[in-house]
Amino acid sequence: MLEIAMNSEDLHGASDAAPSAPAEDSATASPYLITDAGLYWLERPGDPDSPRRRISAPIKVVAYARAPESDGWGQVLTWHDPDGKEHEYIAPLSALQGDGLEVCRVLADRGLRITSGFDARQKLIEYLASSLPALRITMASTTGWHSLHGSQVFVLPDRTIGDIRGCEEVRFATAGALTVYAESGTVGDWRTHVAALCAGNSRLLLSVATAFAAVLLHFSELDGGGIHLLGASSSGKTTAGLTSVSVFGSHRQMQRWRATGNGIEAIAAMYNSLLLVLDELGQVEPREAGEIAYMLANGQGKQRAIRTGGAARRQNWRLLFLSTGEIGLSQHMATVGKQVRAGQEVRLVELQADAGKGHGLFDQLNGYTDDAALSEALRAATRKFHGAVGLEFIRRAVDSAELLQLVVGDRIRKFVEECKAEFTEAGEFGGQAHRVCERFGLAATAGEFATEWDLTGLPPGEFQRALKRCFGEWLTARGTAGNAEPAAIVNTLRAFISRHEEARFTAVDAKSVAPPFPSHHRTVSNRAGWIKSFDKGREYLIDVDVFKKEIFAGYDVGLVCRVLSAAGCLISAVEGSQIRYALQRHVGTEKRRRVYLVTDKIWDDDQQEFDAVDADPAMPDADDEAR
Fold first, then answer.
1. Which of 31, 187, 389, 541 is the most buried (most CB within 10 A)?
2. pLDDT tens digits along 545-573
3. How many domains does the chain contain in total?
4. pTM (2 decimals)?
5. Which secondary structure element, helix H or strand E, spans residue 187, and what is its range?
């Protein structure tokens, strides 16, 4: 019978040096004994022949676990359940303070037989707290790239890829949370049965390349972001999602938009440096959709407080995500009266799933009779062959980390320059188009590396051509290579005036707006402003609060004013060193009112190309009243 006497030295009484296993000749004998039959407390510490009381089935403390920052300490516990299955659990050291009831509940739930009664539970907690294992394990709070002891390693839920030069083990902190990173078949199987069907199909190549690109995001200077494939039901969107998912795991890895922001935040932390696939945008609450897109791309969760009043550690990640849906973000948010911001559109780039070749998602059928047959073949292939190619891509990336650090950025820049030359006359992009082009460039770069490493079986340049085409289609649908805020600002003001011109604006004759003032026969409820009519046009005098808090709520009003002024749609005045946008005017009352004075140039068709950044670079800051 195996018998182990455990030292009872208090962890907090140890010296300042790194903890180590207790010496066998310690002056303090252990009151605990482990045998094949269980964990026991000895009445005479250190004496195996002493009368004993059973505490639980055998349980071992095999290692200390902590975060790379050397906090979040815990103990790695192992035991067998009544069926003989081995279990492992990391018990936080903080949970061993007090009665330890929560730890006991977790152990019992996973099959550890604990003797009933408070005394047995207390002895179990005392045993765990007194154990001093020599082994150390680093627990990574996110998947993906981690730099440890001078080595780059890639952490997955069930394994760590990379050589940490003989140092300690590295694990994912919530191992088991993502059990769908499974391998089925070989790289050759995936190459033959999945990648071959993607050949010549721009949307499929985009989806696969984005999966590879999530791994290489670490070697770029880019932020995270997403690509949204939208189109009618049965257009092939889900097939594209399943194809991208097959790079790293089974179809069960595909997530759903049908979650709260907090729920998706928890999921995102488990996809750091990996591709997150979210199906059916229409299932998420439209009021949360834009905020979730921001959150995923920006890589940071909400700041929360802990019970003591301090700030809890935020969840952080850096990932790419592929989204699908029958509607786009702007259309979805519009159902609850919210307007999509240009920043949200850049973070979640929308592309039609239909490739425009008469086959739905597909550009070509690769020998199949119709798009339905090809889609079914792809779905069957991805269920049978998945995971191996992504793991091999990660291994190659780990082995080539120094090279990737040098060349990924250069390849992205080259892709952007080629797109500028091909898609713009002036050879320039606005900042937003440039960021989107970089994301497509990263995907193209990752796809080409996968081809160079013999993982796809596709000809060189296939991903480059497909990603350029997708970017060009996005740019064409967007309508401009410049920034989108100016057009959004003008359209927002146009829409408000069109919707409320008859009901919420008081019409006044410009010639009669002087003392004595005429009386108005029509009563306007909830007035937004006034309309002055001239012989050759009109002006809209908009109430300051309505302009700031209703029309442009959530906007930077200073930016709004600069854009409209540069477009000739808003009249301004210089007062000393300041530019005022809110001006005092008679509006048919004895007292002058401060209003925003909008000209009828707002209706011109050439108001789409004004760039907010270049609206007036020498313009001084507007004062508070103008804003």
1. 389
2. 999 999 988 788 888 898 898 888 999 99
3. 4
4. 0.74
5. helix 187-190
